[in-house]
Amino acid sequence: MEPTLLIAIAIVVVLAVIVVGIYNALVQRRLRIDEAWAQIDVQLKRRHDLIPNLVNAVKGYMQFEQEVLTKVTEARAGAIAAGARGPAEAAAAENMLTSALRSLFAVVENYPELKASQNVLELQEQLTTTENQIAFARQHYNASVLDYNTSIATLPNMLIAGPFGFGKRDFFEAEEEAKEVPVVQLR
Q1: Domain total for the chain?
Q2: pLDDT at position 114
Q3: Is 104 exposed, middle or buried (0-12, 13-18, 19+ CB in 10 A)?
Q4: What is the largest CA-CA distance in the chain?
Q5: Which of 9, 108, 149, 167 gets the most CB atoms within 10 Å of its CB?
Q6: DSSP code of 83?
Q7: DSSP state string for 133-153
């Protein structure tokens, strides 16, 4: 064979290996994001499951506060529905739920019987723990998204990312006031 043909074949093989390597790295990053989102989803489901128990625990005491309980229930339903629509909509719905829960806990402060209820205290503790776990999962997810988005926006990866359908992913962001874990003292 001619040396120029061998050089051309070698260049094509090297380029093919580089393209395959970049493609595989992008797939791995995308899968890390999917795994990180699954971890957030697990924690959000746990949060959504705790809320009806909390509402039922306080419902009997808060007969005149039905509006607050309704807002929490509606925000929970909205958050569950938004989870399937992606991180941006899920984050907005979860922020509304956090706001509704803060209102509920503020009202609970006005009921001494609730502040002394062991069931409410345990639910509040479980919810606080879940909020912390959501924050950690969100941090991991956002770090994975940053890594992925950076990799698809830099050379030479961007030459591979576009044609193979690797698109930018959204962060899961909390509102400014929701960035801090709610601290509720029921004692």
Answers
A1: 1
A2: 75
A3: buried
A4: 91
A5: 108
A6: G
A7: HHHHHHHHHHHHHHHHHHHHH
pLDDT digits (tens, 9 = 90+) for 118-151: 888 888 889 989 999 999 999 999 999 999 999 9
The reported pLDDT for the residue numbered 42 is 94
Residue 186 reports pLDDT greater than 60: no
Q: Tell whether 117 is covered by a domain.
A: yes
- Burial level of 39, CB count in 10 A (0-12/13-18/19+)? middle
User: The domain that contains 91 carries what CATH number?
Assistant: 1.20.1440.20
Full domain range(s) for residue 29: 23-161
118 within some domain: yes
pLDDT digits (tens, 9 = 90+) for 83-123: 888 898 999 999 999 999 988 888 888 888 777 788 888 88
pTM (two decimals)? 0.82
Residue 5 lies in a domain: no
